[in-house]
Sequence to fold (258 residues):
Amino acid sequence: MTSLAINLWICGGVTAGCWLASVATREYSWVDRVWSIVPVAYLWVFAARSDSPRVTLVAALVTVWGVRLTFNFARRGGYAPGGEDYRWGIIRGRIPGWAFALFNLLFIAIYQNVLLLAIALPAWTMAANPRPLGAYDVAAAILFFGLLAGETVADQQRWNFHRLNPSGGVLDAGLFRYSRHPNYFFEISQWWVVFAFAVISAGTPLLWTGMGAVLLTLLFLGSTAFTEWVTKSRHPEFEDYRRTTSMLVPWRPRTDGR
Fold:
């Protein structure tokens, strides 16, 4: 059985497990609970079935990513009972029960799990094009660690803010002075770097396995827009922050709101 076939079976099993768990518990964040785990498994399956040191390198990098993200998710209570993403509750309260059940099956369970496999698929391209490691790989690995460090700092700044402000508010200091969601920017960028390893391996950016990074970017853009809509309804002062601060890409704050 090929590495892709093995990962397709894993994806199918995890998808079914997440959906069944959500139906049984009426909590709908089970994909969130495996978000930092299953991509690591997919990468190591590709690595185990490949002779490419590049795949092993990327698997190791993604493992560090997964460990850090798992820790951050755990300390926020994501694995505890009742640790559901608050946005699912808002959506559930605004659409009929049957519509949310369909949304849970098609988007939360199936689409998001397929996406988690898709972002790991550049490793399949690397395995099929086992070029020796070179300077570009070193540069990509350094960039990956830089982005990982940026996300770590952003998550720590948000953690510190919420510990000091348990009732919420608008975080506009540190990295959040330059981006409303720097943690999202660094997260997305790391998976574009994973795709960059495939580009280095294949010698071309025209690869269908880059669709995972594209779909991840689109998912975060949609999720960010919804999150900000909720935040604005709870904290009207967020609108002033939104007018002066870049949404994702860190940039110098605008002083005139333009």
About this structure: The two ends are 56 Å apart (CA to CA). Residues 135-164 form the longest helix (30 residues).
